[in-house]
Amino acid sequence: MTEPVFTPRVFSGIQPSGNLTLGNYLGALKRFANSQNAGVESIFCMVDLHAITVWQEPGKLRRATRELAAGFIASGIDPQKSILFNQSQVPEHTQLAWVFNCVARMGWMKRMTQFKDKAGKNAEQASLGLFGYPALMAADILVYHATHVPVGEDQKQHLELTRDIAIKFNNDYGVDFFPITEPVIEGAATRVMSLRDGTKKMSKSDPSDMSRINLTDDSDTIAKKIRKAKTDPEPLPLDATGLENRPEARNLVNIYAALSDQSVDQVMRDAGGKSFSEFKPMLADLAVDKLSPISTEMGRLMQDVCEIDRILAEGAERARAIATPILQKTYEIAGMVGARV
Ligand code: AMP
Ligand code: TRP
Fold this sequence. Notes:
The protein is mostly helical. The chain has two domains: about 10-190 and about 305-335, 3-Layer(aba) Sandwich (Rossmann fold); about 210-300, Tyrosyl-Transfer RNA Synthetase, CATH 1.10.240. Helix content is about 50%, strand content about 5%. It has 13 helices and five strands. It has helices at about 20-35, 50, 60-75, 90-100, 105-110, 115-120, 130-140, 155-175, 220-225, 245-260, 265-270, 275-300, 305-335; strands at about 10-15, 40-45, 85, 150, 180-185. The strands form two sheets. It has a three-stranded parallel β-sheet. Strand 4 (about 150), helix 8 and strand 5 form a beta-alpha-beta unit. Helix 3 packs across helix 12 (about 275-300), helix 7 (about 130-140) packs across helix 8 (about 155-175) and helix 10 (about 245-260) packs across helix 12. The protein binds adenosine monophosphate (AMP) and tryptophan (TRP). Adenosine monophosphate (AMP) binds near residues 15, 28, 191, 192 and 204.
């Protein structure tokens, strides 16, 4: 069988489950804008159906979805160039997810570390949706035949599962229908760490607000959080190798590199040997400079939620135009009578 050639297409998603953090910005949003600007067809999704795998208060979910849309746009996603929408408006995601529930194996799902982390000790009480989460994620991607998925480091295992599902579907049915998606995990900030503990990921769900920078933080708050960020007492080393066993120092340097579009080596050339009392104000100025226009723009966009809703509805329509024929073809391959191909 000849290998089908899939046109390059980027897909990625973010859960509307509260505050957007600097980790989301550097690990995801900023890189999404780069892929859009490089001219690759790009589809970005607010995965509201993933968010409800853990309890979400409806009013908060609605607000978080609109705020996330504002965050995408303020970070440079142009809803004319890219397709921007929320997952629940495109039912083909959940329809394909059912097929994938029947392709994926229990054993594969049980190995997912995100499920283990989120379910904690009480896995019996976790929702069935949380367990099946990665099959819906595979459907998000494959319902568009997406070839590239930019994400942070924490999503690597889910993307391997997406590839396993595509391979098993193709093998089971003897087709070359789904592409084997490439994860795109690159740059200095694929894993931004907590400002309070350099061994923990910066997360919107961390109980301490001081552990993260939120995209909605004002300049004073950003500067204060960086000033108070945990560090060790030594000055910065002279080059990047000296950062190896210093997680907090390494994290701040990585953040600086990602925000300023430089490599870690370039940053170390300027900042190597500086004390934190010199380096932290440099970082704070840079962070305020890059992030405050985003939070201002998010605030402006949030004043007109009707416009945000209009953008999402239009994005959903464009997304469906791609997803519908792929789902119908999947149904036909699987032997469903009445598939419209
Ligand atoms: P989530 O907020 O969990 O839906 O994540 C959305 C995107 O942001 C995914 O691509 C994550 O990998 C990325 N992301 C979340 N937290 C971080 C972090 N601390 N560092 C880098 N990327 C992150
Ligand atoms: N699981 C991802 C996260 O928590 C969000 C997500 C859902 C996603 N579907 C996706 C990311 C498809 C990339 C592609 O961050």
